[in-house]
Amino acid sequence: MERVGADNTASEAKSPALCSDLGSRVTLRVMNTAIQPNVKFVQTPDYRETYANSVQIRVNVWDFFLVFGTMQQNSETQAEMRNFQGIYLSPQQAKALTALLQQNVANYESAFGEIKLDPRTPGGPVH
Fold it and tell me: What residues of the chain score a pLDDT lower than 50?
């Protein structure tokens, strides 16, 4: 961090207590010193893509657990749920995922129209 005086010249960064001699003419320039890295996406050997029409969510104080699967209805009274992947997310990642999904659903609906949920779905989780 650097301090800039009224004449916009940079001076050595000092703690506020040590800069009292500069008076009220000193302003702090807030600098984002975090350099954004170049991100390289690498697929691990066990990477896979698959289709899921069921997502179950379990939540506790430390994390969110998403269980992906497929549901197949064998008859009118019987369905089979085949879970194939469970993924733990931190609460922060769950919130970030929520924001990304909301934005992408809004973009999808803008392009293709409203997504309607099955009215027979109970008030609980959507599978």
Answer: 1-28, 127
